[in-house]
Protein backbone atom coordinates (compact mmCIF):
# COMPACT_ATOMS: atom_id res chain seq x y z
CA UNK A 1 0.00 0.00 0.00
CA UNK A 2 2.94 2.33 0.80
CA UNK A 3 4.36 1.71 -2.67
CA UNK A 4 0.98 2.69 -4.17
CA UNK A 5 1.02 6.08 -2.45
CA UNK A 6 4.67 6.66 -3.45
CA UNK A 7 3.79 6.02 -7.10
CA UNK A 8 0.82 8.40 -6.80
CA UNK A 9 3.09 11.11 -5.33
CA UNK A 10 5.62 10.71 -8.16
CA UNK A 11 2.90 10.97 -10.81
CA UNK A 12 1.49 14.07 -9.12
CA UNK A 13 4.92 15.73 -9.09
CA UNK A 14 5.38 14.97 -12.79
CA UNK A 15 1.97 16.45 -13.56
CA UNK A 16 2.84 19.59 -11.60
CA UNK A 17 6.09 19.99 -13.52
CA UNK A 18 4.24 19.94 -16.83
CA UNK A 19 1.74 22.55 -15.66
CA UNK A 20 3.63 24.81 -13.24
CA UNK A 21 7.08 25.17 -14.85
CA UNK A 22 5.85 26.78 -18.12
CA UNK A 23 3.78 29.26 -16.11
CA UNK A 24 6.66 30.06 -13.75
CA UNK A 25 9.07 30.73 -16.62
CA UNK A 26 6.63 33.05 -18.37
CA UNK A 27 7.72 36.76 -17.88
CA UNK A 28 6.62 40.17 -19.01
CA UNK A 29 9.51 40.21 -21.50
CA UNK A 30 7.41 38.02 -23.79
CA UNK A 31 4.74 40.70 -23.83
CA UNK A 32 7.38 43.42 -24.50
CA UNK A 33 8.66 41.55 -27.55
CA UNK A 34 5.18 41.26 -29.01
CA UNK A 35 4.51 44.95 -28.35
CA UNK A 36 7.78 46.08 -30.00
CA UNK A 37 7.16 43.92 -33.05
CA UNK A 38 3.74 45.50 -33.48
CA UNK A 39 5.13 49.04 -33.18
CA UNK A 40 7.85 48.41 -35.77
CA UNK A 41 5.27 47.03 -38.17
CA UNK A 42 3.25 50.25 -37.77
CA UNK A 43 6.33 52.38 -38.53
CA UNK A 44 6.99 50.42 -41.72
CA UNK A 45 3.42 50.98 -42.88
CA UNK A 46 3.66 54.71 -42.19
CA UNK A 47 6.96 54.95 -44.12
CA UNK A 48 5.37 53.19 -47.10
CA UNK A 49 2.43 55.62 -46.98
CA UNK A 50 4.81 58.62 -47.13
CA UNK A 51 6.54 57.23 -50.22
CA UNK A 52 3.18 56.58 -51.90
CA UNK A 53 1.98 60.13 -51.18
CA UNK A 54 5.24 61.57 -52.61
CA UNK A 55 4.85 59.61 -55.86
CA UNK A 56 1.22 60.69 -56.18
CA UNK A 57 2.14 64.39 -55.67
CA UNK A 58 0.28 64.67 -52.39
CA UNK A 59 3.48 65.69 -50.53
CA UNK A 60 6.31 68.01 -51.43
CA UNK A 61 9.87 66.82 -51.17
CA UNK A 62 10.42 68.97 -48.08
CA UNK A 63 7.33 67.53 -46.34
CA UNK A 64 8.43 64.01 -47.26
CA UNK A 65 11.91 64.56 -45.80
CA UNK A 66 10.39 65.97 -42.63
CA UNK A 67 8.10 62.94 -42.22
CA UNK A 68 11.00 60.52 -42.76
CA UNK A 69 13.07 62.26 -40.05
CA UNK A 70 10.19 61.99 -37.59
CA UNK A 71 9.73 58.28 -38.31
CA UNK A 72 13.46 57.65 -37.90
CA UNK A 73 13.42 59.43 -34.55
CA UNK A 74 10.50 57.27 -33.38
CA UNK A 75 12.33 54.16 -34.60
CA UNK A 76 15.43 55.06 -32.53
CA UNK A 77 13.21 55.58 -29.50
CA UNK A 78 11.64 52.12 -29.93
CA UNK A 79 15.09 50.49 -30.21
CA UNK A 80 16.17 52.09 -26.92
CA UNK A 81 13.05 50.86 -25.19
CA UNK A 82 13.62 47.32 -26.46
CA UNK A 83 17.14 47.28 -25.07
CA UNK A 84 15.86 47.94 -21.57
CA UNK A 85 14.59 45.06 -19.36
CA UNK A 86 11.03 45.92 -18.39
CA UNK A 87 9.61 43.61 -15.73
CA UNK A 88 6.24 43.65 -14.11
CA UNK A 89 6.31 43.84 -10.32
CA UNK A 90 3.26 41.53 -10.33
CA UNK A 91 3.42 38.57 -12.75
CA UNK A 92 0.00 36.82 -13.04
CA UNK A 93 1.55 33.68 -14.58
CA UNK A 94 3.78 33.10 -11.55
CA UNK A 95 0.87 33.69 -9.19
CA UNK A 96 -1.18 31.08 -11.07
CA UNK A 97 1.76 28.64 -10.93
CA UNK A 98 1.97 28.97 -7.13
CA UNK A 99 -1.81 28.53 -6.72
CA UNK A 100 -1.85 25.36 -8.86
CA UNK A 101 1.18 23.93 -7.06
CA UNK A 102 -0.70 24.23 -3.77
CA UNK A 103 -4.24 23.33 -4.85
CA UNK A 104 -3.57 20.31 -7.09
CA UNK A 105 -2.12 18.06 -4.32
CA UNK A 106 -4.72 19.30 -1.82
CA UNK A 107 -7.61 18.48 -4.17
CA UNK A 108 -6.21 15.26 -5.70
CA UNK A 109 -6.14 13.24 -2.46
CA UNK A 110 -9.72 14.05 -1.32
CA UNK A 111 -10.97 13.47 -4.87
CA UNK A 112 -9.41 9.98 -4.98
CA UNK A 113 -10.72 9.10 -1.52
CA UNK A 114 -14.21 10.16 -2.68
CA UNK A 115 -14.51 8.50 -6.11
CA UNK A 116 -11.66 5.96 -6.00
CA UNK A 117 -11.27 2.67 -4.17
CA UNK A 118 -8.61 2.96 -1.45
CA UNK A 119 -9.23 -0.64 -0.37
CA UNK A 120 -8.41 -2.11 -3.77
CA UNK A 121 -4.68 -2.36 -3.10
CA UNK A 122 -5.30 -3.74 0.37
CA UNK A 123 -7.50 -6.45 -1.10
CA UNK A 124 -4.76 -7.46 -3.52
CA UNK A 125 -2.29 -7.55 -0.63
CA UNK A 126 -4.59 -9.89 1.25
CA UNK A 127 -5.17 -12.26 -1.66
CA UNK A 128 -1.48 -12.29 -2.55
CA UNK A 129 -0.69 -14.19 0.65
CA UNK A 130 -2.74 -17.23 -0.47
CA UNK A 131 -1.55 -20.22 -2.50
CA UNK A 132 -3.17 -21.49 -5.70
CA UNK A 133 -5.96 -23.14 -3.68
CA UNK A 134 -6.92 -19.97 -1.82
CA UNK A 135 -5.32 -21.12 1.44
CA UNK A 136 -2.64 -19.49 3.61
CA UNK A 137 -0.48 -22.30 4.97
CA UNK A 138 2.55 -20.45 6.32
CA UNK A 139 2.27 -19.40 9.96
CA UNK A 140 4.15 -16.17 9.26
CA UNK A 141 1.85 -15.32 6.34
CA UNK A 142 -1.19 -16.17 8.47
CA UNK A 143 -0.05 -13.81 11.21
CA UNK A 144 0.51 -11.10 8.64
CA UNK A 145 -3.01 -11.67 7.29
CA UNK A 146 -4.45 -11.43 10.83
CA UNK A 147 -2.76 -8.05 11.29
CA UNK A 148 -4.15 -6.81 7.98
CA UNK A 149 -7.65 -7.86 8.96
CA UNK A 150 -7.31 -5.84 12.17
CA UNK A 151 -6.74 -2.79 9.95
CA UNK A 152 -9.61 -3.57 7.56
CA UNK A 153 -12.25 -5.58 9.41
CA UNK A 154 -14.91 -4.84 6.78
CA UNK A 155 -13.12 -6.75 3.99
CA UNK A 156 -15.06 -10.01 3.31
CA UNK A 157 -12.38 -11.42 0.99
CA UNK A 158 -9.86 -11.29 3.80
CA UNK A 159 -12.18 -13.00 6.28
CA UNK A 160 -13.00 -15.72 3.75
CA UNK A 161 -9.31 -16.40 3.16
CA UNK A 162 -8.68 -16.40 6.90
CA UNK A 163 -11.62 -18.73 7.65
CA UNK A 164 -10.67 -21.27 4.98
CA UNK A 165 -7.05 -21.20 6.09
CA UNK A 166 -7.98 -21.79 9.74
CA UNK A 167 -10.22 -24.71 8.74
CA UNK A 168 -7.50 -26.24 6.57
CA UNK A 169 -5.04 -25.99 9.46
CA UNK A 170 -7.70 -27.50 11.79
CA UNK A 171 -7.81 -24.35 13.91
CA UNK A 172 -11.58 -24.70 14.16
CA UNK A 173 -12.26 -22.20 17.01
CA UNK A 174 -10.52 -19.53 14.93
CA UNK A 175 -12.36 -20.68 11.80
CA UNK A 176 -15.72 -20.34 13.59
CA UNK A 177 -14.80 -16.83 14.68
CA UNK A 178 -13.80 -15.85 11.13
CA UNK A 179 -16.96 -17.32 9.58
CA UNK A 180 -19.09 -15.56 12.19
CA UNK A 181 -17.62 -12.24 11.07
CA UNK A 182 -17.95 -13.21 7.42
CA UNK A 183 -21.67 -14.07 7.50
CA UNK A 184 -22.29 -10.73 9.21
CA UNK A 185 -20.68 -8.98 6.24
CA UNK A 186 -22.19 -11.28 3.57
CA UNK A 187 -25.39 -12.70 5.06
CA UNK A 188 -27.06 -13.93 1.86
CA UNK A 189 -24.47 -16.41 0.56
CA UNK A 190 -25.51 -20.04 1.01
CA UNK A 191 -22.00 -21.47 0.66
CA UNK A 192 -20.71 -19.35 3.53
CA UNK A 193 -23.44 -20.64 5.84
CA UNK A 194 -22.65 -24.22 4.81
CA UNK A 195 -18.95 -23.69 5.51
CA UNK A 196 -19.82 -21.98 8.79
CA UNK A 197 -21.90 -25.02 9.79
CA UNK A 198 -19.07 -27.39 8.89
CA UNK A 199 -16.49 -25.45 10.92
CA UNK A 200 -18.88 -25.19 13.89
CA UNK A 201 -19.53 -28.94 13.77
CA UNK A 202 -15.80 -29.72 13.67
CA UNK A 203 -15.38 -27.47 16.69
CA UNK A 204 -18.25 -29.34 18.41
CA UNK A 205 -16.79 -32.87 18.34
CA UNK A 206 -17.91 -33.27 14.71
CA UNK A 207 -21.58 -33.02 15.69
CA UNK A 208 -24.04 -31.23 13.39
CA UNK A 209 -26.70 -30.94 16.07
CA UNK A 210 -27.80 -27.52 17.28
CA UNK A 211 -26.23 -24.45 15.67
CA UNK A 212 -24.72 -26.27 12.66
CA UNK A 213 -28.19 -27.52 11.68
CA UNK A 214 -29.59 -23.97 11.96
CA UNK A 215 -26.81 -22.69 9.72
CA UNK A 216 -27.54 -25.43 7.15
CA UNK A 217 -31.24 -24.56 7.16
CA UNK A 218 -30.22 -20.95 6.45
CA UNK A 219 -28.00 -22.08 3.57
CA UNK A 220 -30.77 -24.16 1.95
CA UNK A 221 -33.24 -21.31 2.37
CA UNK A 222 -30.86 -19.15 0.34
CA UNK A 223 -29.99 -21.84 -2.23
CA UNK A 224 -31.89 -25.13 -2.19
CA UNK A 225 -29.39 -26.62 -4.64
CA UNK A 226 -26.23 -25.90 -2.68
CA UNK A 227 -24.44 -29.24 -2.78
CA UNK A 228 -22.39 -28.71 0.38
CA UNK A 229 -25.49 -27.76 2.36
CA UNK A 230 -27.42 -30.76 0.99
CA UNK A 231 -24.63 -33.18 1.88
CA UNK A 232 -24.24 -31.85 5.41
CA UNK A 233 -28.01 -31.56 5.94
CA UNK A 234 -28.34 -35.25 5.05
CA UNK A 235 -25.67 -36.11 7.59
CA UNK A 236 -27.32 -33.91 10.22
CA UNK A 237 -30.67 -35.63 9.59
CA UNK A 238 -29.06 -39.08 9.98
CA UNK A 239 -27.44 -37.95 13.23
CA UNK A 240 -30.77 -36.94 14.76
CA UNK A 241 -32.61 -39.98 13.34
CA UNK A 242 -34.67 -38.11 10.72
CA UNK A 243 -34.10 -40.67 7.96
CA UNK A 244 -36.80 -39.27 5.67
CA UNK A 245 -35.05 -35.88 5.60
CA UNK A 246 -31.68 -37.56 5.02
CA UNK A 247 -33.05 -39.47 2.02
CA UNK A 248 -34.65 -36.34 0.57
CA UNK A 249 -31.47 -34.24 0.89
CA UNK A 250 -29.14 -36.91 -0.46
CA UNK A 251 -31.39 -37.87 -3.37
CA UNK A 252 -31.49 -34.26 -4.46
CA UNK A 253 -27.72 -34.07 -4.06
CA UNK A 254 -27.20 -37.11 -6.33
CA UNK A 255 -29.45 -35.54 -8.97
CA UNK A 256 -27.32 -32.38 -8.97
CA UNK A 257 -23.93 -34.09 -9.09
CA UNK A 258 -22.40 -35.35 -12.34
CA UNK A 259 -22.56 -39.11 -12.82
CA UNK A 260 -18.77 -39.43 -12.68
CA UNK A 261 -18.52 -37.58 -9.35
CA UNK A 262 -15.88 -39.46 -7.29
CA UNK A 263 -17.94 -39.92 -4.09
CA UNK A 264 -21.35 -40.43 -5.63
CA UNK A 265 -21.38 -44.13 -4.68
CA UNK A 266 -20.80 -43.21 -1.04
CA UNK A 267 -23.90 -41.00 -1.18
CA UNK A 268 -25.91 -43.86 -2.74
CA UNK A 269 -24.76 -46.11 0.11
CA UNK A 270 -25.91 -43.48 2.61
CA UNK A 271 -29.34 -43.30 0.94
CA UNK A 272 -29.62 -47.07 1.03
CA UNK A 273 -28.78 -47.19 4.73
CA UNK A 274 -31.26 -44.38 5.54
CA UNK A 275 -33.99 -46.25 3.65
CA UNK A 276 -33.27 -49.43 5.64
CA UNK A 277 -33.51 -47.56 8.93
CA UNK A 278 -36.71 -45.80 7.84
CA UNK A 279 -38.31 -49.08 6.73
CA UNK A 280 -37.79 -50.50 10.24
CA UNK A 281 -39.76 -47.67 11.83
CA UNK A 282 -43.53 -47.72 12.30
CA UNK A 283 -45.16 -46.43 9.12
CA UNK A 284 -41.73 -46.12 7.60
CA UNK A 285 -42.49 -48.14 4.49
CA UNK A 286 -45.44 -45.93 3.64
CA UNK A 287 -43.35 -42.81 4.17
CA UNK A 288 -40.59 -44.30 2.02
CA UNK A 289 -43.07 -44.90 -0.79
CA UNK A 290 -44.19 -41.26 -0.60
CA UNK A 291 -40.60 -40.03 -0.71
CA UNK A 292 -39.83 -42.18 -3.76
CA UNK A 293 -43.00 -40.99 -5.53
CA UNK A 294 -42.20 -37.32 -4.86
CA UNK A 295 -38.62 -37.81 -6.04
CA UNK A 296 -39.77 -39.50 -9.26
CA UNK A 297 -42.21 -36.68 -9.95
CA UNK A 298 -39.50 -34.09 -9.38
CA UNK A 299 -37.08 -35.86 -11.72
CA UNK A 300 -39.78 -36.13 -14.37
CA UNK A 301 -40.48 -32.43 -14.16
CA UNK A 302 -36.77 -31.66 -14.40
CA UNK A 303 -36.36 -33.92 -17.40
CA UNK A 304 -39.23 -32.30 -19.29
CA UNK A 305 -37.60 -30.75 -22.38
CA UNK A 306 -40.32 -28.11 -22.49
CA UNK A 307 -38.96 -26.67 -19.23
CA UNK A 308 -35.18 -27.17 -19.42
CA UNK A 309 -32.65 -24.77 -20.96
CA UNK A 310 -29.24 -26.09 -21.93
CA UNK A 311 -26.06 -24.92 -23.56
CA UNK A 312 -22.35 -24.20 -23.06
CA UNK A 313 -20.43 -21.46 -21.26
CA UNK A 314 -16.87 -20.33 -22.05
CA UNK A 315 -14.61 -17.55 -20.86
CA UNK A 316 -13.28 -15.01 -23.36
CA UNK A 317 -9.48 -15.41 -23.75
CA UNK A 318 -9.14 -11.65 -23.25
CA UNK A 319 -10.37 -12.00 -19.65
CA UNK A 320 -8.39 -15.05 -18.53
CA UNK A 321 -5.96 -12.87 -16.59
CA UNK A 322 -8.77 -11.36 -14.53
CA UNK A 323 -9.95 -14.58 -12.85
CA UNK A 324 -8.66 -17.23 -10.47
CA UNK A 325 -9.34 -20.97 -10.90
CA UNK A 326 -11.40 -21.04 -7.70
CA UNK A 327 -13.62 -18.06 -8.58
CA UNK A 328 -17.30 -18.99 -8.54
CA UNK A 329 -19.21 -19.30 -11.82
CA UNK A 330 -22.99 -18.88 -11.77
CA UNK A 331 -25.23 -19.79 -14.71
CA UNK A 332 -28.70 -18.52 -13.95
CA UNK A 333 -31.98 -17.78 -15.66
CA UNK A 334 -34.18 -14.86 -14.76
CA UNK A 335 -37.41 -13.49 -16.13
CA UNK A 336 -36.97 -11.16 -19.09
CA UNK A 337 -39.82 -9.06 -17.75
CA UNK A 338 -40.53 -9.66 -14.11
CA UNK A 339 -38.78 -10.35 -10.81
CA UNK A 340 -34.99 -10.16 -10.81
CA UNK A 341 -34.60 -13.18 -8.52
CA UNK A 342 -33.08 -16.12 -10.44
CA UNK A 343 -35.55 -18.76 -11.58
CA UNK A 344 -32.85 -21.43 -11.75
CA UNK A 345 -29.19 -21.42 -10.72
CA UNK A 346 -26.27 -23.63 -11.76
CA UNK A 347 -22.97 -23.20 -9.87
CA UNK A 348 -19.41 -24.19 -10.77
CA UNK A 349 -15.88 -22.73 -10.69
CA UNK A 350 -13.65 -21.05 -13.28
CA UNK A 351 -11.47 -24.17 -13.43
CA UNK A 352 -14.51 -26.03 -14.83
CA UNK A 353 -14.78 -23.73 -17.87
CA UNK A 354 -15.73 -24.34 -20.61
CA UNK A 355 -18.72 -26.26 -19.28
CA UNK A 356 -22.12 -27.58 -20.31
CA UNK A 357 -25.15 -26.59 -18.27
CA UNK A 358 -28.83 -27.39 -17.91
CA UNK A 359 -31.35 -25.19 -16.09
CA UNK A 360 -34.76 -26.56 -15.08
CA UNK A 361 -37.53 -26.21 -12.52
CA UNK A 362 -35.72 -28.37 -9.97
CA UNK A 363 -33.15 -25.57 -9.60
CA UNK A 364 -35.72 -22.95 -8.59
CA UNK A 365 -34.73 -20.85 -5.57
CA UNK A 366 -38.40 -20.40 -4.66
CA UNK A 367 -41.22 -22.86 -5.48
CA UNK A 368 -43.45 -20.11 -6.87
CA UNK A 369 -40.73 -18.82 -9.23
CA UNK A 370 -39.87 -21.44 -11.85
CA UNK A 371 -38.77 -21.43 -15.47
CA UNK A 372 -42.03 -22.96 -16.59
CA UNK A 373 -43.95 -20.01 -15.17
CA UNK A 374 -42.51 -17.43 -17.58
CA UNK A 375 -42.79 -17.08 -21.34
CA UNK A 376 -39.39 -15.40 -21.83
CA UNK A 377 -36.21 -15.53 -19.79
CA UNK A 378 -32.60 -14.31 -19.99
CA UNK A 379 -29.68 -16.60 -19.18
CA UNK A 380 -26.64 -15.05 -17.51
CA UNK A 381 -23.22 -16.64 -16.99
CA UNK A 382 -21.21 -14.75 -14.38
CA UNK A 383 -17.83 -15.09 -12.70
CA UNK A 384 -18.52 -13.77 -9.21
CA UNK A 385 -15.60 -12.29 -7.29
CA UNK A 386 -17.70 -12.13 -4.12
CA UNK A 387 -19.11 -15.66 -4.50
CA UNK A 388 -22.71 -14.36 -4.54
CA UNK A 389 -25.22 -14.62 -7.41
CA UNK A 390 -25.94 -10.87 -7.32
CA UNK A 391 -23.79 -8.90 -9.76
CA UNK A 392 -21.05 -6.78 -8.22
CA UNK A 393 -18.64 -4.30 -9.88
CA UNK A 394 -15.65 -6.23 -11.16
CA UNK A 395 -17.59 -9.43 -11.89
CA UNK A 396 -17.33 -10.88 -15.40
CA UNK A 397 -20.40 -11.98 -17.30
CA UNK A 398 -22.05 -12.91 -20.56
CA UNK A 399 -25.78 -12.83 -21.30
CA UNK A 400 -28.25 -14.02 -23.88
CA UNK A 401 -31.12 -12.18 -25.45
CA UNK A 402 -34.65 -13.04 -24.35
CA UNK A 403 -35.35 -16.72 -25.03
CA UNK A 404 -38.17 -19.17 -24.38
CA UNK A 405 -37.92 -21.94 -21.76
CA UNK A 406 -36.89 -25.15 -23.47
CA UNK A 407 -34.24 -23.50 -25.65
CA UNK A 408 -31.29 -25.80 -26.35
CA UNK A 409 -27.76 -25.33 -27.68
CA UNK A 410 -27.01 -21.91 -26.17
CA UNK A 411 -23.43 -20.67 -26.44
CA UNK A 412 -22.59 -18.03 -23.84
CA UNK A 413 -19.22 -16.27 -23.76
CA UNK A 414 -18.25 -14.44 -20.57
CA UNK A 415 -16.73 -11.33 -22.15
CA UNK A 416 -17.93 -8.27 -20.19
CA UNK A 417 -16.75 -6.66 -16.95
CA UNK A 418 -19.59 -5.52 -14.70
CA UNK A 419 -19.28 -1.80 -13.94
UniProtKB/TrEMBL annotation:
SMART domains: TPR (SM00028). GO terms for cellular component: cell envelope. The chain crosses the membrane at residues 95-115. Keywords: Cytochrome c-type biogenesis, Membrane, Repeat, TPR repeat, Transmembrane, Transmembrane helix. InterPro entries: C-type_cytochrome_biogenesis (IPR051263), Cyt_c_biogenesis_CcmI (IPR017560), Ig_CycH (IPR056412), TPR-like_helical_dom_sf (IPR011990), TPR_CcmH_CycH (IPR056413), TPR_rpt (IPR019734). Residues 310-415 form the Cytochrome c-type biogenesis protein H Ig-like domain. Residues 145-262 form the Cytochrome c-type biogenesis protein H TPR domain. SUPFAM superfamilies: TPR-like. GO terms for biological process: cytochrome complex assembly. It comes from Ferrigenium kumadai. This is C-type cytochrome biogenesis protein CcmI. It holds the Pfam family TPR_CcmH_CycH. The gene is cycH. TPR repeats lie at residues 156-189, 227-260. It is found in: Cell envelope. Gene3D superfamilies: Tetratricopeptide repeat domain.
Amino acid sequence: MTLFWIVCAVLLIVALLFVVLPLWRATANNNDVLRDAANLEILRDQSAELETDLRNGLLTQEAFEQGKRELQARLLEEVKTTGQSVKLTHNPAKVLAVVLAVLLPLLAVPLYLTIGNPKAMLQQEVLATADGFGIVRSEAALQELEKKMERMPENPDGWLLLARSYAELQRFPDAVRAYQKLVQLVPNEAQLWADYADATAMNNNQSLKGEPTKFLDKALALDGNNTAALALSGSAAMERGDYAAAITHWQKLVDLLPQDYPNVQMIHDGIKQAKEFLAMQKGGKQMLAQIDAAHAAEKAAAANPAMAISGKVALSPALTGKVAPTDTVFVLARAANGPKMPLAVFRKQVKDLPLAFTLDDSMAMQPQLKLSGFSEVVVVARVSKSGTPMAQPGDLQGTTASIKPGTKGLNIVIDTVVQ
